[in-house]
Structures are given as structure tokens and as C-alpha cells.
Amino acid sequence: MKAKILLVEDDDALRGMTRLFLETEGFEVEAVRNGHIALESFHTVQPDLIISDIGMPEMNGFQLLEAIRNCEAGAGMPFLFVSAYSERQDVSHARRLGVDDYLFKPFEMQDLLDAIEIRLSRRRAMQLADTCEAHLQTVTILANSIEARDAYTGGHVGRVRDYALALAQELEWDQAALLVLKFGAILHDIGKITIPDQVLNKPGNLSREELDVMRSHAEVGTHMLKEITHLQAALPYIRHHHERWDGKGYPQQLCADAIPMEGRLLAIVDAFDAMTTDRPYRKAMPKTQALERLEQDSGLHFDPVMANVFVEIMRQ
């Protein structure tokens, strides 16, 4: 979608020239001649950025900026001044009001374009961060509601996420991969929503049929989320966190590097948390013993490189 710019300039020639330039560059432009009209247009146009002169009749640029900042929708709105006002006190006043950039007239159109691109990029990054945080909060609530059914795994999701992040950071995964990991770790047991309580909380060993039901959660969780576009990258965590390095895991019995790295990483931290917390069929073991178990199963159950790195992290 084209970014929308609200252009406020009382000089007809400059307003027309600037509008033409910005539209040629692919922006959608609403151009008005003073701050009063701009303030009325702000709520209907809903721009992505405002460019304004300062010295204008009826409502000057300073008054417009202050009014925009006092609106809920305008608190974080990118706002650029282009003005012949070059005195230090004018610039200082603009900054106190919360202007994002200040260009002096006469200016080069390329300088204006550069300033616009910088501010829009920052706005997009902030919006993306807010969207991701909102999604994380939503999936965390969902995961916690499922976890609440299990009398033995309180806090499991949070601990697995933290262990997984620590291991991935030590392995130098990039920021994009770390963000996906957060979703995958939080949602890895989402399929347990279909597991009956009598199986989920059974105090003794599970029967063969019950074990099959319990193990179905990896495929069920994958099926539940496969149509959600922004969660596609997290599916390997959900489907493959019970695969084994030796090919004896589930649901696909994948072996070694055929297991997606997301599943290999989560298998380690999920197993560690399972060993160090009380379960219906056994008491928690000490962390030192759990780390020894990870070492013993390195290259059998777990990716040997990842397992050894995790053990070193936890011992430090």
C-alpha cells in the first residue's frame, strides 16, 4: 500500500511542486494550505506522516504539531517541519513539541525524500514490533490456558522458552530466528488441548492406547495452526520437538540432520525441563543429574552439538 502523507504548506507553488514530486515517488498526498484545515483532515485522511510549514495563517505549524501530539492517534505520528524559520529558538521549540525532523527552506527534494523514508521505516519497524508483541501475548494466554489443565507442568512454557532462547543465542541465531523461536516455544504443546484430562494427569504409566493419544499432540498442534500465516515458521517446533537423533522419536521418526533444527533444539530444552519438574509418574530429578542424562543421550536422543552447548550453558 502507498504511504499517505499530509502536506501542509501555504505557498501554492511550493505546495504543488512538492505534492507532484511526492506523488511521482509513489506516495499518496493530501495537500492543504494551513494548519486548521490540516487538523480537520488528519482524522479523515489518517496519514502515515505529516510534512508542515511553520509560518502559516489561521494555525501555524507549531500550533498544529501541538494539537496533533495531543491527539491519541497523533502521539507517535512522524512529523517533519520544512521552514524558513532557522533561528535556534525556533528549532528548540519544535523539538520540545516533539518534531521528528526539521528541514530549512530552500531544501533539496532528495533531502526531503530521505527524511521521509527514514521516518516511515522507523514507524513500520515500531508497528511490526507492536504487532509481534500483541501476537505473543495472545499465544501466551492460549498456552497458559492449556497448561492450567495440567497439574504437573505449571510454568513449563515459560521455562522452555527461556532455555530455548539461551541456547539459540549461544548458537548465534539471528534476531528473526529468535522471534520465531519465541512463538514456537510458547506453542509447542498447543495440541494438548485435545488430550483428555484423565490421560493428561494420569498418575501412573500410560497404556499403549493412551500413549498414542498423548503423542498425537504434535500432529494435532501442527494441524491447528497450519492455516495461520504468521505462525508458519513456528510449525517445526510444534511438529518435531519429540523427534530423536537416532530416528526413534515421533511423529515422523526423522533421524539426525533430517530433523529440522528447530525441533532438535526444542527437544533438548523440553526434555531438560521435563526431567527437572515433578510429573505424574515420577518426581523431579536434580539438575546436575538431568545434565548428565543429556550428556549420556547426546548423539542418541539429542543433537550432539546442541546438547553439549546447552549442558555447558547450564553448568556455567
What's a concise summary of this model?
This protein has helices spanning 12-24, 35-45, 61-69, 88-97, 109-147, 156-170, 175-187, 197-200, 208-215, 217-225, 235-240, 261-275, 287-296, 304-315; strands spanning 4-8, 28-32, 49-52, 79-83, 101-104. By secondary structure, it is an alpha/beta fold.
Describe the protein.
The protein is α/β, with parallel strands linked by helices and 316 residues long. It has two domains: 4-122, Rossmann fold (3-Layer(aba) Sandwich); 148-315, Hypothetical protein af1432 (Orthogonal Bundle), CATH 1.10.3210.10. It is 55% helix and 7% strand. It contains 14 helices and five strands. The longest helix has 39 residues, at 109-147. The protein is elongated, with a radius of gyration of 28 Å. 34% of the residues are buried.
CATH superfamily of the largest domain: Hypothetical protein af1432
Average pLDDT rating: 88
How is the biggest beta sheet arranged? 5 strands, parallel
What low-confidence regions span 5 or more consecutive residues with pLDDT below 50?
none
Which assembly state applies to the chains in this document?
Answer: single chain
In the CATH hierarchy, the third-tier topology of the largest domain is known as Hypothetical protein af1432
Would you list the SSEs in sequence order as H and E?
Answer: EHEHEHEHEHHHHHHHHHH
The Cα radius of gyration reads 28 Å
Q: Quick one: how many beta strands?
A: 5
Large-scale geometry: elongated
Q: Provide the helix percentage.
A: 55-70%
Number of domains: 2
